Amino acid sequence: MVPTRWVYVYGPDRVDGRGDMKELLGGKGAGLHEMARLGIPVPPGLTITTEACVYFFRNGSFPEGLKEQVREGMALLERWTGKKFGDRVHPLLVSVRSGARVSMPGMMDTILNLGLNDESVQGLAAQTGNPRFAYDSYRRLIEMYADVVLGVDRHLFEERLEAKKQEAGVRSDAELSAEHLRALVEEYKALVEKHADQAFPQDPWTQLWLAIQAVFASWNNARAQEYRKIHGIPDDWGTAANVVTMVFGNMGEDSGTGVAFTRDPATGEPRIYAEYLPNAQGEDVVAGIRTPYKIEEMQRRFPELYEELLRYARILEEHYRDMLDLEFTVEKGKLYFLQVRVGKRTGRAMIRIAVDLVKEGKITREEALRRVDPYKLEEVLHPMLDPAWIRENGHRELTRGIPASPGAAVGTVVLDPEEAARRAEAGEKVILVRAETSPDDIKGMARSEGILTARGGATSHAAVVSRGMGKPCVVGAEALQIDEENRTVTVVGEDGSRVLREGEVITIDGNTGRVYQGEARLIPPEMFGAFDTLLSWADEVRKLRVRANADTPEDAARARAFGAEGIGLARTEHMFFEGERIYAMQEMILADTEEERRAALARLLPYQKEDFKGLFRAMDGYPVTIRTLDPPLHEFLPKDPESQQALSRKLGVPVEKIRSRVEALLELNPMLGFRGCRLGILYPEITEMQARAIFEAACEVARVGVQVYPEVMVPLVSTEGELRNQRDRIEAVAREVFDAYGVEVPYKIGTMIEIPRAALTADEIAGTAEFFSFGTNDLTQTTFGFSRDDVGKFLPKYIEMGILPHDPFQRLDVQGVGQLIRWAVQRGRQTRPDLKVGICGEHGGDPDSVRFCHQVGLDYVSCSPYRVPVARLAAAQAALDGKDQG
Amino acid sequence: MVPTRWVYVYGPDRVDGRGDMKELLGGKGAGLHEMARLGIPVPPGLTITTEACVYFFRNGSFPEGLKEQVREGMALLERWTGKKFGDRVHPLLVSVRSGARVSMPGMMDTILNLGLNDESVQGLAAQTGNPRFAYDSYRRLIEMYADVVLGVDRHLFEERLEAKKQEAGVRSDAELSAEHLRALVEEYKALVEKHADQAFPQDPWTQLWLAIQAVFASWNNARAQEYRKIHGIPDDWGTAANVVTMVFGNMGEDSGTGVAFTRDPATGEPRIYAEYLPNAQGEDVVAGIRTPYKIEEMQRRFPELYEELLRYARILEEHYRDMLDLEFTVEKGKLYFLQVRVGKRTGRAMIRIAVDLVKEGKITREEALRRVDPYKLEEVLHPMLDPAWIRENGHRELTRGIPASPGAAVGTVVLDPEEAARRAEAGEKVILVRAETSPDDIKGMARSEGILTARGGATSHAAVVSRGMGKPCVVGAEALQIDEENRTVTVVGEDGSRVLREGEVITIDGNTGRVYQGEARLIPPEMFGAFDTLLSWADEVRKLRVRANADTPEDAARARAFGAEGIGLARTEHMFFEGERIYAMQEMILADTEEERRAALARLLPYQKEDFKGLFRAMDGYPVTIRTLDPPLHEFLPKDPESQQALSRKLGVPVEKIRSRVEALLELNPMLGFRGCRLGILYPEITEMQARAIFEAACEVARVGVQVYPEVMVPLVSTEGELRNQRDRIEAVAREVFDAYGVEVPYKIGTMIEIPRAALTADEIAGTAEFFSFGTNDLTQTTFGFSRDDVGKFLPKYIEMGILPHDPFQRLDVQGVGQLIRWAVQRGRQTRPDLKVGICGEHGGDPDSVRFCHQVGLDYVSCSPYRVPVARLAAAQAALDGKDQG
């Protein structure tokens, strides 16, 4: 039997591993082997496999043969470097670093300078002619080793270091002399003996074995476990351990350390982007005490190094066919690469690079499509917080909520929508801060830079409307207590409260849910050719149609510009709040008889008709799905006494009547109350007016050559009887209007599937519906029993605790809600094979959910205009995945 | 080919039909044929089949052969009676009456005295020696015929009659002379000519054919269609038409008419119950002008008739093996039976008769079990409105709501629970009238005779709690506007409003949802031996276990008395409102830290423990399912400023803090908010306290010999992770307590399935749950998207419109909710074959729903104590049905 190979070695004349062996060698290890294979200068080393780690966890000890293989590898390193492990003259020093399949930055442990002891430190001093450097390296080894291997608190060492500086009367570490450091080494050793009940091991092999064990063990430390849970990384993968020859960038001005991206990670521009710090180690860069040179300065000061770097970067990029993130060190004029990996990048860089690589002939269009993360795509369309600002201003964070609509916004805190509108009209940039928003607030929301609410979840009113408007929004920031009377917002924290007054400036980040005090630096959005190019490629491969949720002709036009192929959801009620319309609506609600209601509705009809004409014109040639009235009627009446008085004067209706109607309409659980088609069934005249507006509008624009495809959608259906009731009325109006106009337009009548019962009885409902549109916001609410408005109280905690993997209002819950969808699609198509099926919940713009929609065979997804590009790309990726699978 | 038989004749020497031919001959016809067959005196007649009716509807004409067969039958009637149809000397008169398969009282048309015309009326006058009678009969025929056949408005004839009385200077019809009536006949004929554009037909055959057609047509009149829709009778059954020789009870003191029940329909006592009115026709009895003789007086005055009636009643009951409702007429001393059918009866009579019939050897136990309508069973346990009072006082009806808890109650209107408790303690009987109730109101509810709310549905708080208390309750009476400030209730009606003041007396009927002004006459409940006997038979055949929902030892004891085999749902929160406990609960909610919460919880622990001990003792030997805390926390804090002030003083907590906590806890849709296991997950110390109380109580009573089987039930689970989180904590506490007590009791941990997602992922959840209990109240809410509290706004209308066949909160929606249940049971048992599955929603006490539970293989149902007998019987019937089906 061939003994298992636990150790892979690489160096100038032998490379055991390859770049595609990430599972076995981890990402870092595979990269080192691959570079060695390509002839890129790397410090020689060896990689102990993830399998050895897994064995170690299962058995509590190294597998047979591992130590021998490591010894053989170390012998090779000695041969290649001409040094000797633990030697008092030419000591070989190594680092031991973890490296899992996927990068887990900073999660696991590393030990540097391994191989130093009381004897070899002298060798290092002699060899480098720099005793200060040698003792500093030794001190660091002891500290790291004590912490990582022996579990001694690192602060003890830091305290000693501080004491030593005081003793020496110096302020920085660098001012300590070799003598100071030598003394410190002794003190450190004493500390180890005292706190670990054992001496720091002088035997380098003991150091090595224990260091490898410690690196393996760090796979299971608390923060690594947490990180894996958050990122969905399996616990049983294990980590590899890399033993790499040390190279030092801090050996003088001909040494240094740096990082490089083969293209600009912020913009994607095809030019190398690097930072270099002479006479420094990686830690010094991280500590941020000295400012590294940017690429231009590097080119000027170290032209040879720059050229060399450029050359290797080109080779590597050519080889990896992607933008790379490289770490390098220069030791006495010699360049070494320590790490290669695919580079992280902003959304816009991601797009630019993918498209450029296609143009450069390096990757195919399909590869380009697969490489762009659709979640990042939306970022491009909104201002974003400058990452550098965040690094510098983390302490300004006030609180966190649920990220509900992407982009960042800066503005003054304003607590009510009227005031927000007033200030905005006067030129002030404002952030509307509310407990929650209601349809009443829309005007104020439209004028604000962004919206922040204390309540609600990712599909609350504030969230949905903000996304529709393309405005940054953070919801469910439960720590906020809003006092409208005193015009203050109190941020309740564990260590006391802070009070913000109206007019103070804050910044909200709709990508992360964070709220900051003061004005942050934003990066403006930028449209560019690569964006359109990529999406045009996406359109070629996707099967799903992409529509937009749009309520106004302006939204519809924007949606078309983003590539929407129709409207999947026009919420008619959003049209009722503008100008004079609201009064007609309110009169309708206050009416006592059907006649009065009809009179008020007749006044609404021309408005609705104009709106619909606008939508039809904007979507010439594409379907427009119009939902009949959905929200509970009380949303249209004012709740506070003052506004009720004003309304009373305006309409000439006794305020007492308004009050009593508001009271009669109030509900304990309006989400499950008198709304949706329930309204249209009890007040058929409402549905009739809306149907009339739709069909008259359609006929009028059809006459002038617009191609209209109205789809009338009945909301909140839970039984077939409800839909039948509404369909009969809508059809009757359609016939009437067509007869009157002498025009006939093709139309469909269908229903939202947003109540579990509708999904469960989809076979029956499909007998009456020509299309289904999954209203996954409500369907998620009812399937989980989660109110989108109240979920902030426990959902963030659920996700933190791992009870839910993600917010089901943002990413479709495939297991539960998805099961209902799957069932409804199958059953519905059994009854009606040509049933058109789409989704118009917020999930229609979420890439993972779009993938699911593709898999279950929907015809289209519909989302807010700004997410249309996201959906187009996600749909293309889903189609490519489908192709792969057969 | 044998020609189809459309006509079945019965008489002294030939009977074509049988009693089991109801489908063909209708109920009335089949009864007449069967009586004739048994030798019971019936006026001879013939029945035209329902098939003829169906043919008539399909083809618009009588089928071939029908007329010939009718003529043959009429010839037989002539032979048997010695009279001749249309004869001027001995005219044969007949009635034409509808008669469907099932009784549809008053829904369809009847024509009497057919065969009279200007000539035969003289014959009748001569034959009877009573011209007044003859012309009165003729007048009535013309009126009925004009109305039913020719569609002339009946009021026109009534106006003429009134005018004639004025002319004659008399007040009652009876005072009109033969001459007056003869003149009236002429006026009536003129009216017909004028309004129907045709003369009243003198040809008796024309009369007959058109009358038969009219009776057929009446099957499709609007009120019959409506009736069928309500009672689920298929439209295509059609009605039979009976042509029956007329007999007259108004031919003098040796004539008369009456009805008889073979047993007392109110009590079930085995003695005949009859009413008899001499010298009268059926119409006179209905008109209620004269008071009929009761059976005792009849026996005294007409002993021979009484004996004859008794004899035939015995023969018929022996034959039909059930209590019968008979109509009879005496013509000149000769008794005729006109109708036989199974008699309607009260719930208690139903039980008594079924059990008596078994004892008399007439039916089997299984038949007895099948014959008792479980919906009627509950009636026996509560006071009910005297039907006679309702007949006389229909105008006192104020409004209707949803019947939520059975029984009737009389009391003074009181608008708040404190006042209700005060008045009740002073000896006043009160009805608590509220917009809706909350857990705060429980004390007041307990002291009231009944509860009436303006909002809510059949599973609202008021409904559920009332049923638990066995108190009459009407909810969702949306016409009520309650003004607590002015202490009035306004009943908004279409014809104006009425104002009730606090202290006025009303009556509520929890069986029908009706509310009456003033004090109604009630029939008290009565327990009796037959009830227990019947239920003991039910217990022998049923497969389902029956448990009770009970929160207190008193409820538990009552449930045991009703035959409950354990507790299926103990709502721990109901225990938190009594006495001092509420303060500890409130302190817990107001606590800022886990420590403070734990301190408050520690004070609650002893109370909970005592409660659980009481439950365990009452259910010695049976399982007790205890649900951990379920309602949202804001339910425990006062909302009004006054009570907040009081609480502030009591607890020494700033009122500002109470207010702000209330505000922070308020939710837009609390039903879908921070409640159920979501509380126990975020505040694990609550679950831990409750688990501790359960297991300590169990150990303490187990030590003294009580057999305890606690089942801890986690509410509102939507993901397996939630249940696992809570199970881990509960198990840890159990281990701790068992160790401390040195006692181990068997226990189970399971979950409510009350959220669609839990049902959809039942396979996964069953891995963690040892039992499921379907919480069908919440499951119905979320599956339909109906809030139980707000459904009153549209659900009654939905049922009226036929969009839903019944209230899904009262009777399980098998198609939607039932599908989730079926799925969850199957998937759950796939994962865990011995999974125990029950139901604890209100449907557990609804007979139809119990049948479904049996069919899908549940182990038990659980319902409020008063419905335990209902469930026992329903379970038995379901088992019997199952046996039938194989």
Topology (elements, then pairings):
Two copies of one chain form a homodimer.
Chain A: E1 7-11, E2 14-15, H1 22-38, E3 45-48, H2 50-59, H3 66-81, E4 84-85, E5 91-92, E6 94-99, E7 110-114, H4 120-128, H5 131-148, H6 154-168, H7 178-196, H8 204-218, H9 222-231, E8 240-245, E9 256-261, E10 273-278, H10 282-287, E11 293-294, H11 295-301, H12 303-320, E12 324-331, E13 334-342, H13 347-359, H14 365-371, H15 374-377, E14 384-385, H16 387-393, E15 397-400, E16 402-405, E17 408-414, H17 417-425, E18 430-434, H18 442-447, E19 450-453, H19 461-469, E20 473-475, E21 480-483, E22 488-493, E23 496-501, E24 505-509, E25 514-517, E26 522-523, H20 529-541, E27 545-549, H21 553-561, E28 567-571, H22 581-590, H23 594-618, E29 623-627, H24 641-651, H25 655-665, H26 677-682, H27 684-703, E30 709-714, H28 720-741, E31 748-753, H29 756-760, H30 762-765, E32 771-774, H31 776-784, H32 795-801, H33 817-831, E33 836-839, H34 847-855, E34 860-863, H35 868-884
Parallel strand pairs in A: 4-5, 17-18, 18-19, 19-20, 27-28, 27-34, 28-29, 29-30, 30-31, 31-32, 32-33, 33-34
Antiparallel strand pairs in A: 1-2, 1-3, 3-8, 6-7, 6-8, 9-10, 9-12, 10-11, 12-13, 14-26, 15-25, 16-20, 17-24, 21-22, 22-23, 24-25
